[in-house]
Amino acid sequence: MAIPIILNFRGIILVTIIFTGLGIYMVNLHSKAKETYDKSTGIIEYFAKEYQNLPSRHKGDFRYLKINSYPYLFEIYEPNSEPTEMSIDDLKIGDKIDIYFYETYNTKNIGLNRFAQFIDKDGQPFFVRSGFQMHLGLTIITLAIVLQIMAFAFWWNSGKLQWSGKCNGHSPSYSKFAPP
Predict the structure, then answer these.
(1) For residue 51, is pLDDT > 80?
(2) What angle do the packed helices 132-153 and 9-30 form, to 10 degrees?
(3) CATH of the domain at 80
(4) Which of 32, 155, 171, 177 ranks highest by number of CB atoms within 10 Å?
C-alpha cells in the first residue's frame, strides 16, 4: 500500500516553520547564563558510573549523582562536558556542590534528571555542559531557512512545486490508472 505524500509549497513552508521554532527553542534553552537555571546546593550522597540497571548504553560515559537537597538522581553524560581545570571525576561523596539544572515533566515521572548544566564546588567549575544542543538548534534553523529558500525558488521560478497540491483546479490523482 502506497501512502500518498503531497509535496507542495505550503506544506514545505509549514514544516520548515515548525523546525525553525524547534531550533529557536533549543538555542534558547541551551544558551542561558548559569544563573538563569534552577540551582540546588547540597552534599553528594551517591556518585558512581552506574546506578541499578543504568546506563543501558555507553557504559563508562555516564555519571550518576545524588545530593541531599534534591529529590531526584542526576544522570550526567560526561563526554558532553567542556574542558575545565577540574573534572567531574574529581568529585567524591561528602563534597558540597552547587548544581545548575532544569527539569522537564519527565524528570518527576522517572525520578531522574538528565539536564544538569553546571556543577561547581567552592566556586570552581567541575562540569560545564558543552554547547552541542545549541549548535544543533542553529543547524536546524539554518537548514530550515535553506529549505524555505529552495522551495520558494522551485515554486516561483520553475513552477515545479505547486502552491497547494492542486493542478489546474483539480486535486492530484494518485491512482496508477488515472489518465495523464
Answers:
(1) yes
(2) 160
(3) 2.40.50
(4) 155
Q: Where are the beta strands (DSSP E) in 68-175?
A: 73-77, 96-101, 112-113, 116-121, 124-128
pLDDT tens digits for range 96-126:
999 999 998 899 999 999 999 999 999 999 9
* Cα–Cα distance for residue pair 148/137, rounded to 1 Å: 17
Decide if 106 is inside a domain: yes
Amino acid making up residue 46: Y
For residue 97, what pLDDT is reported? 96
Backbone φ, ψ for residue 61 (5° rounding):
-90, -15
Name the residue among 70, 66, 89, 71 with its Cα closest to residue 79.
89
- Specify if 28 maps to a domain: no
Q: Indicate the number of domains in the chain.
A: 1
How far apart, in whole angstroms, are the C-alpha atoms of residue 159 and residue 155? 5
Residue 155 is assigned to a structural domain of this protein: no
Q: How far is CA 130 from CA 41, 77, 92, 116, in A?
A: 22, 10, 22, 11
Is residue 75 one of the residues assigned to a domain?
yes
Q: CA-CA distance, 134 to 82, in Å (whole number)? A: 14
Q: Which domain holds residue 80?
A: 35-130
